[in-house]
């Protein structure tokens, strides 16, 4: 799982999700927080990306599309074609931002042409954990199946 977390919400969500995967699904996962690993590496195994929205002002309708603070994650995905192994993105944010809620992840899905899987708010809820775990496994299986078929 590749992600960026600036104020810790996404990091907290990822740590709960990791524990859930290991304890409830017997699946081992590893993750990279781009904020803490600024040296890019080539990713050649399928992965999912998590991206909280940090946009510059606006309302997401007439303006407010400009990503700030998280652009390093886009650079990481672009590096050596890493995005080609990403089977989808999960957005997050704060619903107070209305139309801008989780918008950056939607922008990345278009830019890199991978699926927008789903989203959650802030640190997520207890319901979000199994829901997002299921979604990840579904998209991962689809991606791996397609890759093997080609
Ligand atoms: C300067 C700033 C801009 C933000 N812009 C948005 C936004 O456009 N849309 C949104 O849904 N959330 C926005 N948020 C909320 C964050 O996405 C939210 O707090 C998220 O959980 C932060 O994740 P992190 O703690 O892992 O960094 C913004 C927060 C800050 C501080």
Write the layout of secondary structure elements.
Layout: E1 2-3, H1 9-24, E2 32-33, E3 47-52, H2 71-78, E4 86-93, H3 103-112, E5 116-121, H4 128-149
Parallel strand pairs: 1-2, 1-3, 3-4, 4-5
Helix pairs in contact: 1-4
List keywords for this structure.
single chain; binds flavin mononucleotide; 150 residues; Rossmann fold; five-stranded parallel β-sheet; RNR_NrdI
How would you characterize this protein structure?
GO terms for molecular function: FMN binding. InterPro entries: Flavoprotein-like_sf (IPR029039), RNR_NrdI (IPR004465). This is Ribonucleotide reductase assembly protein NrdI. With 150 residues, the chain is α/β, with parallel strands linked by helices. 37% of the residues lie in helices and 16% in strands. The protein has a single domain, classed as Flavodoxin domain (Rossmann fold), CATH 3.40.50.360. A five-stranded parallel beta sheet has the order 2-1-3-4-5, sandwiched between helices. The longest helix has 22 residues, at 128-149. The radius of gyration is 15 Å and the shape is globular. Bound molecules: flavin mononucleotide. Flavin mononucleotide binds next to helix 1 and strand 4.
């Amino acid at each position: 799982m590749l992600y960026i977390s600036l104020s810790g919400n996404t990091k907290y969500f990822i740590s709960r999700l990791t524990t859930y995967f290991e304890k409830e699904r017997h699946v081992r996962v590893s993750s990279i927080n781009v904020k803490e690993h600024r040296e890019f590496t080539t990713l050649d195994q399928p992965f999912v990306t998590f991206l909280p929205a940090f946009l510059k002002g606006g309302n997401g309708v007439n303006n407010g599309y400009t990503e700030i603070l998280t652009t390093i994650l886009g650079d990481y995905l672009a590096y050596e074609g890493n995005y080609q192994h990403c089977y989808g993105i999960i957005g997050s944010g704060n619903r107070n931002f209305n139309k801008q809620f989780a918008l950056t992840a939607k922008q990345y899905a278009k830019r890199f042409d991978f699926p927008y899987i789903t989203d959650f708010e802030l640190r997520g809820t207890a319901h979000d954990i199994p829901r997002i775990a299921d979604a990840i496994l579904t998209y991962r299986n689809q991606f791996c199946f397609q890759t093997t078929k080609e």
